[in-house]
Amino acid sequence: MTTPDIAAALARVERALRHRPDSGLHGDASATATWAGGLRMRCAHPAGRQVATDMPVQLGGGGEEVTPGWLFRAGLAGCAATSIALAAAAEQIELSSLEVRASSRSDTRALIGLAGPDGQDVPPEPSDLRLDVRIAAEGQTLDSLRQLVERAVRRSPIPSAATHALPLALVVSLGEASSGVD
Fold first, then answer.
1. Pair 78, 157 in one domain
2. Which of the listed residues 66, 87, 117 is the one where a domain comes to its end?
3. Can you tell me whether residue 3 is helix, strand or coil?
4. Which domain holds residue 56?
5. Could you list the mean pLDDT of each consecutive 10-residue stretch along the chain, which spans 182 residues?
6. Is the dihedral of CA 85, 90, 91, 93 positive or negative?
7. Where are the beta strands (DSSP E) in 25-176?
8. Residue 98 belongs to a domain with what CATH number?
9. Distance (Å, rounded) from C-alpha 102 to C-alpha 171?
10. Same domain as 129, residue 82
11. Beta strands in the chain (DSSP E)
12. Quick one: pLDDT at residue 33?
């Protein structure tokens, strides 16, 4: 879609949401991870799309697929980039390039249950979570693009979830795995 097409679609959605604000609240598509042997998982979308994950050979995996942590960073970068592109289109800004890189640091000791030198648990969550955005649009200054990016990322669901640490409900049941698709 072109920038004007995206802007028109956004305007239609905005009109609909102004008329019926409650229609904006919806359940998100679930992601179901099913064990595929070893440390390999098959992650399925309700529409049938799938992506496999695995762990590096050093941790006992096959090392042939992306890790779940990488998928988290890919989701973070993809969601931020999408929000930036949506905001640019809504403001009639024709982007000439956009690249969002998500990076972090993790401590493998937490994953395997090792304590730190002080005997305390090592935090399992990634640290130094960072988004690096490279963006260009003809006729736009760095400052105006920075403001666009900041507005867009504040409205972006996955970066916001990482920033505001959602509570996680954990439900465990006994039984065989389903097909992996809702």
1. yes
2. 66
3. helix
4. 29-66
5. 89 91 90 95 96 95 95 97 97 96 95 94 93 97 97 96 89 78 54
6. positive
7. 32-35, 41-44, 50-53, 95-105, 127-137
8. 3.30.300.20
9. 29
10. yes
11. 32-35, 41-44, 50-53, 95-105, 127-137
12. 95
